[in-house]
Recover the amino acids of this structure.
């Protein structure tokens, strides 16, 4: 009986430690956004349908991420779902605590406003929570094993990285202001710069991991198969984030394209770096 | 057993998956086409755009009576090639007898080729006014 209660106690400790790590990760990943006023404003003025879309795509995204970084191959989708929901819960809790401590949410506000503010912060926080748990738990051995990555997996990891860094900067007004200040030549230059940076990352990771690209691979081969699709993924994520944040409403095609290129820059860096980090 | 499995895997990792998978190439080339068309689009725009300064049309979209105030929704369109910031729109309503009502709103940004909405609040219904008009007072460059 004593050994049983001991087992329970250590189980409890493990759960608490896991949750603590998740909360730490959520905090690290979402603090920049928790302290950005545009994110608070989005919490109350953002179209509710888009908030629902955001949350609806977050869950499968987290499940995919949980599958990618999960260290056990035998895990079923139920475990991934549980992990994702747990990450969301931790993310929402961290957001609630931080936002109410900073008086961003308070009792004088409507439920709609408070829930909106928490919901939008939950997405980056949940990604952080999931990553932190995995980073701490995963052994070197398991990380070695996961080096082997499918092509679709690579693109998925890139999408996560793009989403994460894109989410960091997309709510700020600067993102839109930059696109207004830029002329079309700037956009061309920014696309080329994004591609060049991405390709640098692709090469660095390709050689380090030795998974996809061997030193014998000509640069253009990797460029076409990894960098270009990666940039398209980053641009699509950029467009999606802009739409979710209502930055495309009533805006001409040209201006939307400009904004996609501007946000595509951090997104592509995020996408390329994610392959290195995850 | 798991040892062998892992060994196989690491071996698989070293093996050149580079052997150009068709799918990868299809996606890669399609992405290349997309990126190139983006570059061509911006390049074309850069050459063809004559850089016209912002020009506006302000139109009344709707009038709603809410608690005694008439909310007049203004749709402001920028036809120029450049984005305008801090665009001030003034609405003047002359009810006939009595004082003229003047209201102003400021649009933070009106991007080139895009439109923005706002509302002016009057105490008289514009439909019954003798004179009612909008004018764009000014703007700054972003």
């Amino acid at each position: 009986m004593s050994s049983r209660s001991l087992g329970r106690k250590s189980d409890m400790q493990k759960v608490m430690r896991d949750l603590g790590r998740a909360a730490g990760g959520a905090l690290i990943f979402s603090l920049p956004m928790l302290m950005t006023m545009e994110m608070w404003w989005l919490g109350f003025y953002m179209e509710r349908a888009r908030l629902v879309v955001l949350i609806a795509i977050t869950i499968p995204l987290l499940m995919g991420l949980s599958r990618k970084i999960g260290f056990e191959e035998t895990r079923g989708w139920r475990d991934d779902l549980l992990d994702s929901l747990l990450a969301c819960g931790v993310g929402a809790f961290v957001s609630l605590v931080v936002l109410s401590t900073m008086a961003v949410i308070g009792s004088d506000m409507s439920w709609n406003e408070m829930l909106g503010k928490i919901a939008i912060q939950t997405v980056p926080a949940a990604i952080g929570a999931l990553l932190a748990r995995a980073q701490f738990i995963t052994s070197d051995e398991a990380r070695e094993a996961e080096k082997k990555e499918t092509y679709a997996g690579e693109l998925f990891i890139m999408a996560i990285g793009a989403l994460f860094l894109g989410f960091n900067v997309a709510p700020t007004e600067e993102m839109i202001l930059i696109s207004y200040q830029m002329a079309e030549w700037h956009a061309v230059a920014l696309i080329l710069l994004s591609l060049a940076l991405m390709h640098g990352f692709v090469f660095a990771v390709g050689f380090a991991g030795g998974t996809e690209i061997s030193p014998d691979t000509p640069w253009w081969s990797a460029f076409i198969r990894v960098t270009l699709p990666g940039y398209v993924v980053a641009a699509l994520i950029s467009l999606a984030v802009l739409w979710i944040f209502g930055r495309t409403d009533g805006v001409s095609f040209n201006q939307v394209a400009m904004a996609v290129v501007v946000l595509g820059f951090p997104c592509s860096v995020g996408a390329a770096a994610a392959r290195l980090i995850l | 057993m798991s040892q062998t499995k892992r060994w196989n895997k690491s071996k698989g990792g070293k093996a050149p998956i580079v052997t150009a998978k068709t799918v990868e190439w299809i996606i890669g080339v399609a992405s290349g086409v997309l990126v190139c068309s983006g570059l061509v689009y911006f390049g074309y725009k850069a050459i063809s755009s004559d850089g016209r300064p912002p020009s506006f049309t302000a139109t009344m979209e709707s009038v709603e009576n809410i608690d005694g105030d008439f909310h007049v929704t203004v749709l402001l369109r920028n036809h120029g090639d450049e984005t305008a910031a801090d665009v001030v729109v003034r609405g003047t309503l002359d009810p006939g007898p009595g004082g003229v009502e003047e209201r102003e709103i400021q649009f933070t940004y009106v991007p080139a080729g895009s439109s923005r909405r706002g509302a002016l609040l009057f105490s008289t219904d514009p439909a019954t006014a003798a004179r009612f008009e909008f004018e764009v007072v000014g703007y700054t460059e972003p």
